[in-house]
Amino acid sequence: MKKAILALLTVVLSLGMATAMGTPAHAASKSTAKKVGYTRVAVAPAVYELIGSAGITPAPVQGAKAGAYKGTLAASFPITGYRLKGLQIKHSGGLNLSAGASTITVSDFNIDLARQRVSGNVSGTVGNVGRVDLFKIRRSDRRDLGAVRLTLTDTAAGALNATFGVNAFAENATFGYATPKPFSRF
Predict the structure, then answer these.
(1) I need a surface site. Which of 36, 49, 51, 153 has the fewest CB within 10 A?
(2) Per the confidence metrics, is the pTM higher than 0.85?
(3) Cα(104)–Cα(59) distance, rounded to whole angstroms?
(4) CA-to-CA distance for 134 and 83, rounded, in angstroms?
(5) CA 175, CA 65: separation in Å to the nearest integer?
């Protein structure tokens, strides 16, 4: 776990060093936010199969990108800012998951290294929930898919199960793998 946190901490510190060299440290607002790289999230292959077999269709929203990646789906979310105090990396964009009339949209992710959590804004069939913790950051068991492993929080698992009428998602189950890529072209 320490290696996973260290890898993400290195990303945050490199962002801070770039600030000293003239790169913008933090955007004032979403509308003027500068992209300073992106984070790629690869969905765990078993979760991708589950989503497909349940008839759930993922689609990028608000400037995110998604496509095939190593036998699964990967989405990229622009990094729009960070805070060295609190060790946070902010993103724009998101994903919409839909099956029939049921939808859930998660967007504007924040990686919080101090708490080892990823939060996002949630809306859809469940209503406008607002910002909630979606994932816990864990050591990757698939470095080929990402630097860290993202496991579901109880809140995220419950929202997915309630939205799609399934019992397939559980707290601490691996959802995917994340790799921040600061200063990379989006």
Answers:
(1) 49
(2) no
(3) 11
(4) 20
(5) 18
Question: For residue 161, how many other CB atoms are within 10 A of its CB?
Answer: 14
Question: Minimal CA–CA distance to 152: which of 141, 144, 160?
Answer: 160
**pLDDT tens profile 64-121:** 999 999 999 999 999 999 888 778 999 999 999 999 999 999 999 999 999 999 999 9
| Domain boundaries of the chain, sorted by first residue | 2-182
Q: Is 48 helix (H, G, I), strand (E, B) or coil?
A: helix
Query: How distant, in Å, are the alpha carbons of 51, 58, 158 from that of 104?
Result: 13, 10, 12
Q: What are the residues facing 185 on neighbouring strands?
A: none
Q: What is the CA radius of gyration of the chain?
A: 16
Contact criterion met (CB below 8 Å) for 7 and 147 = yes
Identity of the amino acid at 117: R
In the predicted structure, residue 24 carries a pLDDT above the cut 70: no
On the CB side of 151, how many CA atoms lie within 13 Å of its CA? 12
Give yes or no for a contact between 138 and 4, defined as CB atoms under 8 angstroms apart.
yes
Type of residue at 120? G
- How far CA 4 is from CA of 9, 85, 86, 112, 160, in Å, comes to 9, 19, 17, 13, 26
